[in-house]
Design brief:
This protein is mainly alpha-helical and 170 residues long. The chain contains eight helices and two strands, in the order ββαααααααα. It has helices at residues 20-29, 33-46, 51-58, 62-74, 94-105, 116-127, 133-142, 159-168, and strands at 2-3, 10-11.
Amino acid sequence: MHLAKHQRRPWLELKLRHHPDNLHALYRESEDLVERARWHAIWLLTTGHSIPEVAQILGYSIRWVRDTLHRYNEGRPMADLRLQNPGQSPLLPPELQEAFRQALLEPHPRDGIWTIRNAAEWLSQRLGRPVDPRRAWSWMRRLGFAPLRPRPRHRQADPEAQAAFKKNSS
């Protein structure tokens, strides 16, 4: 690796694996926008443009062009592989989601109210592993439910005085 004179970055060399005409064809035929831009950058580099010129022409940063050149030299794919990642499967399979929805429609067996902790316990029993209450809350929200809990009551509240206040207030 050479260091360019008066520069900190190493001098990059293009290890040409394709004929420039083939690079141009790859650039023109690509349907993925990220892959197309990367092939375009490599093609411009093979036609004699410098890295800053390619960055200016394409509207990307010099760093992006250098990363694309490294990607090409290493033989890594030019396509944007993030779009091909299906991601992790959901915590609840569809049949368990429906069972959870049906359970939430009924009163809770223990105390009649579905709290977040009750939902987490239900999910933990069905999945066979602990489920965080925040995860249970997110699944309740995703299924269109809100966790229910009784309104807070003061320990020293007087129900008769509250009822009298409600009657007298307009």
